[in-house]
Amino acid sequence: MEVASKSSAYRARWFEFLTPTSKRWRLLLGATVWVIFFGLWEMAVLWGWVNTLLVPSPLEVIRTLYELFAERGFLSDVGISIARILGSFLVACTLAIPLGILMGSFKTVEAFFNPFVSAWRYLPAPAFIPILLMWFGTGELPKLALLFLGVIFFLITLIMDHTSQVRAELIETAMTLGGQRWQILWTVVVPAVLPNILTSMRQMLAIAWTYLVIAEIIASTTGIGAMMMRARRFLHTDEIMAGILIIGILGLAFDVLFRWLQRVLFPYLDQEGH
Amino acid sequence: MNMLDEDRMAQSSPSACPPPTDTPKLRLANVSKSFHVPRGEAIEAIKDVSFTTLENEVCVLLGPSGCGKSTVLRMVAGLEQPSSGELMLDGCPITGPSQERGMVFQAYTSFDWLTVQQNVEYGMRLNHVPKAQRRERARHFIELVGLSRFAGAYPRHLSGGMKQRVAIARTLANEPAILLMDEPFGALDAQTRWQMQELMMSIVESANTTILMVTHDIEEAIFLADRIEFMSRHPGRVHEEIIPSFKQGRRLRHKEELIGLAGYGDLERHILHLMRAQGGEDFEH
């Protein structure tokens, strides 16, 4: 809107350094790229550039997605997947948040745990799938364990780093105001690092989706990944793509949820759009 | 510091403030500090620093950068330990940080997640001051620094000078025995800076506080100080104690008054010479 008033004197240009675009324009551009993507895909199918057995049309995929939900009880698969993500992520967070904060606050705690935590970070979680299957059989436990292992050590490290970056002056101010160690931890360190913890959680939740699909593809009869592997056996590419689509949508939905939480929980921060 | 007494505070006019007394408030005796560098040799940062600050006095540590004046202040705050020597406040040795010695830093230290009111109440909350008393005292000090209109605002809506005023109010509301300030106006622009200096003087008059302040701004030091400890470096020690006697024990309200006083130019010239002699190593001509 501001741009419009200036446009009489200034030449409006599409490409300009250091110039923000309006929100409406951004939305429009963002939508356009998707229209082009699906348009090209639909054209490729219509004009026979691709084998429709391998590449179904986007409309076909959406129709299948509807069918999956309406007639084939796909909702329970989606529900199971979400429950697995949230369950294991919750356990990982209840462990990682206090541990990460303590490691970031006190060098002694860091010196004790960090060599252990860093070592685990370099082990790819899927390497544990065979042993997890042997230990926990084929129930829910091996999937939850894989998700947990894939997320926890990164989460601890991220939270530790954010905590150790809480500005020394804030802590020293509290010390010269008479704050005791635990008072300062609760009233300065924790509130200062909380927004960054939420950001770390948002990032790690995206990683958790990766491990979920791996777990469900390899060893599961339920969940979105398992549905996709079943579909592969019957050459139902439309169902596989519907699965991919729903994973993408859910990932995006969680991202939006976290961003909303960030705004609601930390209204005192300078958020974008101000 | 004295317990807050609303009535007396309200009635006290600037001239009614008790002048600095002869009671020693803070005493440093032969304080030294050396740092160990990785190679093993120790570097002596502070050597044999001794001085005394009287009750209700504004004492300024002045000196070129690198003379260790901030380190001395941090030792008084209890945030760093001396290698040797004695630091005493009201006759008791300083062993660590405490509510008695509240510090205002150069960097902004407002807690982003608390409003101005909550920020100023923060220290009292740590020290379990009852809620009603806390609120009342915070309101008083917020008014003292002229932020009443912003009591409900979060720090992100405040300018740099306002954030420093929050920090000052927060520290004073906590009733420290001495207020420590580490280049509190160093990050502010020139105009805000002298406004803050004048505000400081009005606070000193109405709140009866002993202040130990670090600065490298000569004019600021002369304007605010009842006593200046000029420090030299390599190693950091007190080079000269300066009493700006030309002020005749008066506290100035405006910077213009300072410039008009006979003796101001001479003192500034004297300190500039000291600074230049100290800066010789960095600025070879």
UniProtKB/TrEMBL annotation, chain A:
GO BP of this protein: transmembrane transport
Alphabetical list of SUPFAM superfamilies matching this protein: MetI-like
GO CC entries: plasma membrane
CDD domains cross-referenced by the UniProt entry: TM_PBP2
Entry-linked Gene3D superfamilies: MetI-like
Family, similarity comment: Belongs to the binding-protein-dependent transport system permease family.
Protein name in UniProt: NitT/TauT family transport system permease protein
From TrEMBL, chain B:
UniProt-listed Pfam families: ABC_tran
Limits of the ABC transporter domain: 26-258
Annotated segments matching region Disordered: 1-24
Superkingdom per UniProt: Bacteria
A molecular function GO annotation: ATP binding
Keywords, comma-separated and alphabetical: ATP-binding, Nucleotide-binding, Transport
Keyword Disulfide bond: no
SUPFAM superfamilies: P-loop containing nucleoside triphosphate hydrolases
InterPro entries hit by this protein: AAA+_ATPase, ABC_transporter-like_ATP-bd, ABC_transporter-like_CS, ABC_transporter_ATP-bind, P-loop_NTPase
Keyword Transcription set for record: no
Family: Belongs to the ABC transporter superfamily.
PANTHER family: ALIPHATIC SULFONATES IMPORT ATP-BINDING PROTEIN SSUB, TAURINE IMPORT ATP-BINDING PROTEIN-RELATED
Record protein name field: NitT/TauT family transport system ATP-binding protein
